[in-house]
């Protein structure tokens, strides 16, 4: 009996402390049923109950309300509802009315793919989480500038914002973001087709701390906006896939972003060797570069990239660049010794 007591009081807590930090949320919940001792041990570690993950789950709205009603989730910091089913405005209203206090410490909220949530839902949920830092609502066509107005009003500390695919958001939202989130570090406005140069320019003027900027599939933007990306000294990741109006002049300005590590220029059809050479000379920490589909680049830019980025480049995509010849593995490694991924046209 004494041995069992020692086992329960000393050994079990030590083992569970090690094992539980590596388990998924579902496994942790299952372990609660294993024994009273394990149940007590798990509940005695608040750090284990800071995440609620309902990714792709059914009946997620009701599950969320039930979970947040439990004492162990009183200080939850991260909620993932990405592509969860049955999550609507009414469930978010229930969260606020029944267990809103549980969201006071929330820092990360992922609503990606929750297409039934509207501006009302955004108003309700952001009203309960003033410490929110990361907000993602990818692929939501119901949310408008009204929802973003509620976000910036209720959550003052957002540094990571994903609005990808929110097609009903306009420059007004970007103006609000720029004026309220000047410490913003990551912004994704992929396929926000109502955005124009005006919105992006306000962001680039006010948000100089940006490290990640995703402008994928925004074909209406022009060099007037792209040139201002040079104002981002801390920028590390830039996605310009489909930037049909980007020219060598704009790209030469972007080359002033000395800390750039990843640059996607896929289908930037007006770019030539001139712009890529400017990038090679200015961005000497570059690790990933995609030139996919650009007919205006040749072996010349590859030679210059080798001169300035040979020790850093690990991924290079020149698929569809018909003026760049195919090379053997040994030839590539002479140009880029650390290259792990090289894609060429067939």
Can you walk through the features of this model?
This is Ubiquitin-protein ligase. InterPro entries: FBXL15_LRR, Leu-rich_rpt, Leu-rich_rpt_Cys-con_subtyp, LRR_dom_sf. It comes from Solanum tuberosum (Potato). It holds the Pfam family DUF7885. The longest helix is centred in the N-terminal third of the chain and has 19 residues. It is globular and about 75 Å long. It has 14 helices and twelve strands. By secondary structure, it is α/β, with parallel strands linked by helices. It has a twelve-stranded parallel sheet, with no helix packed on it. The protein has a domain of 45 residues.
Secondary structure layout:
Elements: H1 2-20, H2 25-31, H3 36-43, E1 51-53, H4 60-68, E2 78-80, H5 89-99, E3 108-110, H6 119-126, E4 134-136, H7 145-154, E5 160-162, H8 171-180, E6 186-188, H9 197-206, E7 212-214, H10 223-226, E8 237-239, H11 248-254, E9 262-264, H12 273-282, E10 288-290, H13 299-309, E11 315-318, H14 329-335, E12 341-344
Parallel strand pairs: 1-2, 2-3, 3-4, 4-5, 5-6, 6-7, 7-8, 8-9, 9-10, 10-11, 11-12
Distance between the termini: 72 Å
Radius of gyration, whole Å: 24 Å
Helix-strand makeup class: alpha/beta
Strand order of the largest sheet: 1-2-3-4-5-6-7-8-9-10-11-12
N-to-C SSE series?
HHHEHEHEHEHEHEHEHEHEHEHEHE
Describe the global form: globular
Number of helices: 14
Main beta sheet strand tally, sense and closure: 12 strands, parallel
Strand percentage lies at: 5-15%
Mean pLDDT, as a whole number?
91
The percent range for helix content is 25-40%
Poorly predicted spans:
none
Query: Could you give the count of β-strands?
Result: 12
């Amino acid at each position: 009996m004494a041995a069992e007591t020692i086992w329960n009081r000393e050994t079990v807590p030590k083992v569970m402390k090690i094992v539980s930090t590596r388990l998924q949320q579902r496994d942790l919940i299952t372990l609660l049923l294993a024994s009273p001792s394990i149940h007590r041990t798990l509940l005695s570690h608040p750090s284990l109950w800071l995440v609620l993950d309902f990714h792709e789950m059914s009946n997620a709205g009701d599950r969320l309300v039930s979970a947040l009603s439990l004492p162990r989730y009183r200080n939850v910091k991260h909620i993932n509802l990405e592509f969860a089913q049955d999550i609507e405005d009414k469930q978010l209203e229930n969260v606020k009315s029944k267990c809103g206090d549980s969201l006071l410490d929330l820092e990360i909220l992922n609503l990606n793919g929750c297409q039934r949530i509207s501006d009302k839902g955004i108003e309700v949920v952001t009203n309960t989480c003033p410490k929110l830092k990361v907000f993602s609502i990818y692929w939501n066509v119901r949310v408008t500038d009204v929802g973003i107005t509620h976000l910036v009003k209720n959550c003052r500390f957002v540094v990571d914002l994903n609005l990808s695919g929110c097609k009903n958001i306009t420059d007004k939202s970007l103006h609000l973001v720029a004026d309220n989130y000047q410490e913003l570090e990551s912004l994704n406005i992929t396929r926000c087709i109502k955005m124009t140069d005006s919105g992006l320019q306000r962001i680039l003027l006010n948000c100089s701390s940006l490290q990640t900027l995703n402008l994928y599939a925004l074909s209406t933007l022009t060099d007037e906006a792209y040139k201002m990306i040079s104002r981002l000294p801390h920028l590390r990741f830039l996605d310009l896939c489909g930037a049909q109006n980007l020219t060598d002049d704009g790209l030469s300005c972007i080359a002033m972003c000395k800390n750039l590590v990843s640059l996607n220029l896929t289908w930037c059809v007006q770019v030539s060797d001139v712009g890529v050479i400017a990038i090679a000379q200015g961005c000497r920490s570059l690790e990933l570069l995609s030139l996919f589909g650009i007919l205006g680049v040749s072996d010349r830019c590859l030679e210059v990239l080798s001169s300035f980025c040979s020790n850093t480049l690990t991924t290079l995509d020149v698929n569809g660049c018909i003026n760049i010849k195919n090379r053997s593995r040994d030839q590539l490694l002479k140009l880029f010794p650390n290259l792990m991924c090289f894609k060429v046209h067939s």
